[in-house]
Amino acid sequence: MKTLLSFTLLAIAAATSAQAQDFPAKDKTITLVVPFAAGGPTDRVARDLAEALRKPLGANVVVDNTAGAGSSIGAARVARATPDGYTLLLNHIGMSTMPALYRKLSFSVPNDFEYLGIINDVPMTLIGRPNLPANNMQELTAWIQQSKGKINLGNAGLGAASHLCGLMFQSAMKVEMTTVPYKGTAPAITDLIGGQIDLLCDQTTNTTPQIEGKKVKAYAVTTSKRLTTPALKDLPTLAESGVKNFEVTIWHGLYAPKGTPAPVLQKINDALKVALKDPDFIKKQEGLGAVVATDKRVEPAEHKKFVLAEIDKWGAAIRAAGTYAD
Ligand code: ASP
Fold first, then answer.
1. How big, in percent rounded to 5, are the helix, strand and coil portions of the chain?
2. Is the C-beta atom of 41 inside 6 A of ligand 1?
3. Is the bond leading into 130 cis (omega within 30 degrees of zero)?
4. Which DSSP category does 147 fall into?
5. 139: CA distance to ligand 1 center in Å?
6. Confidence band for 3, pLDDT divided at 50, 70 and 90
7. Half-sphere exposure of 173 (CA within 13 A, CB side)
8. Given the CA of residue 182, which atom of ligand 1 is nearest to it?
9. CA of 204 relative to ligand 1 center, distance in Å
10. What are the φ and ψ backbone dihedral angles of 65, each rounded to 5 degrees?
11. Do 2-122+250-321 and 123-221 have matching folds?
């Protein structure tokens, strides 16, 4: 009996290792799960990356949106997926805010994922509906003070980057706004353009074309320095507009379910490093205000170290603000 069991375990190990060596199989597609709505900033990064990964991986990579609850639904899907390299997650800073924002998560960010590398850093912009009377940060500050309690602020759900930015903005302005959650900032921006909500804080990867096309009003960037992207270079930073201690930059990372074989992880990380140097990918990202990662965070161990530090950083800020969801 014991011999049979050892034989079976050996056979499974041999089959897994053979599958890992063959990864990715010619007839299989890699699913890149995006935990936000299609057409938004995380989706944009994922679609550009999927294209850049196809050649170095030698496989088809398709984006699949599993949106809702500030990215926790899509992240849970990948945490539970078969760990064979064919289901991956692309998520942003939400990986580090979820553990503090949700009392109950069905997965553990540190323990249930393999870390594959940081992709980019993206600034955020504070934008308003096109008919908002304020035309600059000074006028917006005055309008916010007058409209206390009547402001609708969109976000992509608890744990989303827009939620984090909105929390920081309300606390800096000392004003409570009515937050309106969406499954991503693509549907939020549609409502902002339609005037159903007043304000939104969103990544430049989504807002740059809207700002360029004057579909929304743009007030400020969330970085410590002004940006160089042509459409955004005239926007002040929130800090220089008098909103002190405000700095937030969104990063995106790539993950696999825990237990994915090491040779598979190695192949994906190698392909990611090639994709991050792809001139076409870099050009597309830079045109939208994003900075493609070139530092040590593209190494899996450094990616994980960085996310753990971010969990501590944002966890402390969120616990101080006392915001939770069940
Ligand atoms: N920008 C969104 C956020 O607020 C996510 C998205 O829709 O991609 O986190």
1. 45, 20, 35
2. yes
3. no
4. T
5. 26
6. low
7. 24
8. 7
9. 11
10. -90, 120
11. yes
